[in-house]
Give the backbone structure.
Amino acid sequence: MTRGPFHKGAVLLLAAALWTGLAFPAGAIEPGEKLDNPKLEERARELSRELRCLVCQNQSIDDSDAPLARDLRLLVRERLKEGDSNEEVLDYIVARYGDFVLLRPPVRPETWALWAAPFIALFIGGVVVLMLFRRKKETAAEAEPLSDEEAARLDELMEKADAKMRE
Amino acid sequence: MIAETGHFALVLAFAVALLQTVLPQIGAYRQDARLMAVGVPAAQAQFLLVLLSFAALTAAFVTSDFSVYAVAQHSHSAKPLLYKITGVWGNHEGSMLLWILILSVFGAAVATFGRDLPDSLRARVLSVQALIGVAFLAFLLFTSNPFTRLDPAPIDGGGLNPLLQDPALAFHPPFLYMGYVGFSMAFSFAVAALLEGKVDPGWARWVRPWTLAAWMALTLGIAMGSWWAYYELGWGGWWFWDPVENASLMPWLVGTALLHSAIVVEKRGALKSWTILLAIFAFSLSLIGTFLVRSGVLTSVHAFATDPERGLVILFILAFFIGGALTLYAWRAPQLKGGGLFAPVSRESALVLNNLFLAAATVAVFVGTLYPLGLDALTGEKISVGPPFFNMTFVPIVLPLLLLVPLGPLLAWKRSDIYPVLQRLFVAAGLAILTIIAVAAFYSEGPWLAPIGLGLAAWLVFGAFSDIAYRVKAFKAPARESLRRMRHLPRAVWGSTLAHAGVGIMVAGIVGISAWRVESVAAMTTGEVLEVGGYEIMLATVGAYEGPNFRAEKAEFIAMKNGREIARLRPEKRVYPVQNMPTTEAAIYTAWVSDLYVVLGDRRGENEWTVRAYVNPLVPWIWIGSVIMVLGGAVSLSDRRYRLGIPFARRKAPVAAEGTAS
């Protein structure tokens, strides 16, 4: 393996400078890493997508071919073979690398705002919209419909405008 | 000499922008026609000067003038001409110059085509647009001068990152910038309207086409970036929820909301104050995106802290424009008169819901992108926010929005009835349910949500065309009558139908690759066959060749289905010696309903390579759908009612009459 993770960081900076997405060639899982048991392998893939490659920028270990990502993939599979549940595997890895390794941030007091913000925004927005309608309903009664004369005048104006547009 | 000319033009542009900021604004305040008129030639002059400066930098890149620092850092004499040109914006200084160039293009466009705008509104728009120009020209001149010289000049340059030496990526920044910076137009119009104290339908008629044009460019830019990531990064991912991508998605989401709410202002005179706010936010998020990417804060909060000059300047610009505009909004918006009333079931309400969901989705992307930075800066605690977070927040917020999309265009303005609308969607709903059943029956493997996802896609596509079917009385009137009606439908109706159908096609693509992707990885020697998702690929040969500025290993695979050859695939592995960096060039055989995607990995032994092969179902539809969305925008833009105001510019018709015609 000729390319090191730090080189990738530099590449990413450049790509970031161009508003692009992640930018390093990667290929992830190598032949021979796979487990023979397809059920376990499926679980390993699921877990890999939840774990961050620590030396990459925002990439899961499932997507990265950095050596450290490979080590983590092997570690996940080893724990699964030992009979760990998915949570146990994640706990084991978090105990070693910290919460930073989780792509799904844990729900803790520090992250409540993170998890809740989108739904609070939706809720507050919904309440505002409902209030808007309530107010509209009150004022709607006051609005009078156009009289026949006004409607006729409006039609005339619209036609004129349409004719002008077609010129 | 060329570089100095460019530098000088840039300084002049800065001076002109200063004048353009101050004089028309004073003119509008005093109602002095002569001062207001200064804005027009100033905007045009500013554009020409920035263009001259950009041309000078391009010349320096094309002629490989390594005495210019930016060229020496980012170009190389052996690079193909195309990438010498696109290298102009492949670096910090040049890309900021491109940003300013596009800003001045929009300013000059208002000056040139906006003759029908009320004088004081146009003067204020040009003044605000120029103020943005002043800020960024100052940023460029004082912190990131693209024309800085090097003495002595190096023999050759540092080269452009090989990953960026790709046609799709080379042209993706200009499109993105047209989108980002295009929203400056909506921003300038919003601030000018707040200063004027009034928003009339004529205002929305102006803002809408420009916003639509910017939105189209941004959509195309994001789609190009995602397509590039798909074929270049070598594992077939197409969206990563990376902060840099999110930086472009946020203005897109708010811009989409703005497009829709501007319709309500134009047609019904309602939602004025909200639309102004959206216009401010769309551009603010563009500025935040600029800050995120330019300041280096994304890589690490600490990198930003150690070299904060550029980041701090952008942060200051950001705070000034966002803070200033929002303060102005808080002060003046309450004076804006509310417009037409509408009932809870009406087209207006549907558009309000659209805005609500899009705004909440933007919040999800916003916190997901910035929360880790904030937490790190405040507490030093590091967390990662990746795809699982967005799947659990963004997706559930967007799904109800997508479900409601087909209803919107069928609802009447002001007050509507839900029952007849549902009736008109009966066929679309039936087809969607049929899709779910058929998919569930034929593809029982994969997540249970997948058939429902494709059902949603079908609902969006057929639902979009339900509007047209209803309007032309398809199958209810004689065919000739339907055709006649079809010809007379406003283009804007075709536009929205296409755009909404495009969303459906894109959803199908996203569901396809997320649910049914098949992967095969193996170590292969020549002559061996690998099976992947119903295809067999045989590694025929691997050879080496020299490119203009790279060395490559190129493999040839014979792709077979049921024992018959269907394609030859030639993936490459390149090394660019200037940067000593490898890239993969995936080979893709597209059957339109799926891609066969083959990557040549590392050499493992004498005659053995790692090979990765994927079958990605429906994935091309993601980009086909995006392009259809853009086409929808283009069709809508070609509606004579919205033609960027150009047809009106030819004659001096009374503005008021044009403003209210519809």
Residues 645-662 of chain B have pLDDT under 50 and may be disordered. Residues 347-379 of chain B form the longest helix (33 residues). DSSP finds 24 helices and ten strands in chain B.
